[in-house]
């Protein structure tokens, strides 16, 4: 047999095979980065869910103080309900969705801060062992939220860097750019503390 006759066909098939492998490699790597961002988004939601669960326990503990300000408790419960109603599809996180989610969560943080400040006027409540434990767990959870958000942003950076780079972006149209967590508007201003 004369292999020279088939050599152009063999080279052509080899080139097609190499291009196909390159294309599938690009797609599979993008899929891996996408899965990583979805996993990190799940971790963010888990941290916020833990905070919401703790808030329920904290509110019930504070309700035990008969003369505690009911409006403060109501504000915390309403902010928590609003925050849990905002959901985001991790496959298509837009900056607008993330801003709405962030705004709802900052409402919870603000209401919770007012609750903890008003507790200072209730020495019996401040001495309550359950309250102190919940307060410590809440502080720990806030750190977990910060860590989860940071890791989410790091995974988004890796994902965006991969899917937006040339020439891969020509083959990755189904992988849109993902949004980062950003600070809530006004967070750069120092907090005014009054005594």
Please provide a written account of the structure.
There is one protein chain. By secondary structure, this protein is mainly alpha-helical. The protein has one domain: de novo design (two linked rop proteins), CATH 1.20.1440.20. 71% of the residues lie in helices and 0% in strands. The chain has five helices and no strands. The protein has helices at 7-63, 70-85, 95-118, 123-127, 129-164. The radius of gyration is 25 Å and the shape is rod-shaped. The mean pLDDT is 84.
How many beta-strand runs? 0
In the predicted model, the low-confidence regions spanning at least 5 consecutive residues are none
CATH classification class = Mainly Alpha
Radius of gyration using CA atoms only: 25 Å
Number of helices: 5
Roughly what percent helix? over 70%
Q: Determine the N-to-C terminus distance.
A: 96 Å
CATH topology: de novo design (two linked rop proteins)
The CATH architecture term is: Up-down Bundle
> Which H/E pattern describes the elements?
HHHHH
Q: Beta fraction of the residues? A: under 5%
Structural class: mainly alpha
- CATH H-level name... which superfamily? LemA-like domain
Summarize model confidence as the mean pLDDT: 84
Number of domains: 1
Largest β sheet strand count, sense and barrel closure: none
Tell me the overall shape.
rod-shaped
């Amino acid at each position: 047999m004369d292999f020279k006759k088939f050599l152009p066909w063999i080279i052509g098939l080899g080139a097609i095979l190499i291009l196909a492998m390159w294309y599938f490699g690009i797609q599979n790597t993008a899929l891996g980065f996408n899965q990583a961002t979805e996993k990190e988004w799940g971790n963010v939601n888990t941290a916020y869910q833990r905070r919401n669960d703790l808030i329920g326990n904290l509110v019930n503990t504070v309700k035990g103080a008969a003369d505690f300000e009911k409006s403060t408790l109501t504000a915390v419960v309403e902010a928590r309900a609003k925050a849990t109603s905002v959901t985001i599809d991790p496959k298509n996180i837009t900056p607008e969705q993330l801003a709405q989610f962030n705004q709802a969560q900052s409402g919870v943080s603000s209401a919770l801060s007012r609750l903890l400040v008003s507790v200072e006027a209730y020495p019996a409540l401040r001495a309550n062992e359950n309250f102190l434990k919940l307060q410590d767990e809440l502080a720990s959870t806030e750190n977990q939220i910060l860590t989860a958000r940071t890791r989410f942003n790091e995974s988004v950076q890796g994902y965006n860097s991969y899917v937006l780079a040339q020439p891969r972006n020509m083959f990755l149209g189904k992988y849109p750019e993902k949004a980062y967590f950003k600070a809530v508007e006004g967070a750069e201003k120092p907090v005014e503390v009054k005594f």
